[in-house]
Amino acid sequence: MQNRIALGIKYDGTRYHGWQRQIGLSSIQECLEDSLKKLTNEEIKVFCGGRTDAGVHALGQVVHFETSKIRKDSVWISGVNHYLPRDISVSWKKNVSYEFHARFSAISRYYRYIIFNAEVRPAVLYSNVFHVPERLDHENMNEAAQLLLGEQDFCSFISSDHQNRSTTRNIQYACVRRSLGYVIVDIQANSFAYNMVRNIVGSLIEIGKGKRRVEWIGDLIKMRDRTKSGPKINSRGLYLVCIEYPKKFDLPNYDISSSLIVI
């Protein structure tokens, strides 16, 4: 009998070409599936809640897979972690019903982008934050971010690979704040398209630098033209913080205060 299992995953995406398995390239999915195979001696296919791009990190990724093996929760966690590289770890395990799907059962995804806003570049966290030396006006950035709220067509912030896919998304929360030498951009939506968060933050940075007015974000939404918006910024400062699911699945809640990098 096959059991469906959900795992909570954390990873530093610096060394990986994104979540999805790719021929000849290292990926989070490949590392996790290979580790599960070593633990179970089965071919395991893992499905994730958020397909992060190359270099993107995760604090609250959720995955599911099926297996015939029965193990204690602690054994699943310690066993998989034993075979995983140091920059990927399993934080929790839960048996779930066949109704649960890591991707399609998700209600929303919450991302955070961390900008190191100081004249001199960082050293210790260089691979985990994006450096902007010019002083950013985070209040103007936050005011502009509120124009993103609601169900709208975000074509201006979605890279061209979307082709015939829908570019409409529902952004439920957006906030830009300053914490010491960092500017933190939080954004939550029902789902995100390819490079959408990085393109949005790139435009907000233009406003923070004073190159664009606050209302420009609203103008971009109306234009529906990716070539008119700000640059796509580096993935190193982007984190998938958590994924929300219906309460009936009773998955562990991610404690955002438990991570040092989240500031």
UniProtKB/TrEMBL annotation:
Pseudouridine synthase I TruA alpha/beta domain boundaries: 10-104, 144-246
Alphabetized Gene3D superfamilies for the sequence: Pseudouridine synthase I, catalytic domain, C-terminal subdomain (3.30.70.660), Pseudouridine synthase I, catalytic domain, N-terminal subdomain (3.30.70.580)
Catalytic activity annotation: uridine(38/39/40) in tRNA = pseudouridine(38/39/40) in tRNA
Residues annotated to bind substrate: 111
Keywords: Isomerase, tRNA processing
Any one GO MF annotation of this record: tRNA pseudouridine(38-40) synthase activity
EC number per UniProt: 5.4.99.12
GO BP annotation list: tRNA pseudouridine synthesis
Xref: NCBIfam families: hisT_truA
Listed PANTHER family: PSEUDOURIDYLATE SYNTHASE, TRNA PSEUDOURIDINE SYNTHASE-LIKE 1
Protein task: Formation of pseudouridine at positions 38, 39 and 40 in the anticodon stem and loop of transfer RNAs.
Name used for this protein in its record: tRNA pseudouridine synthase A
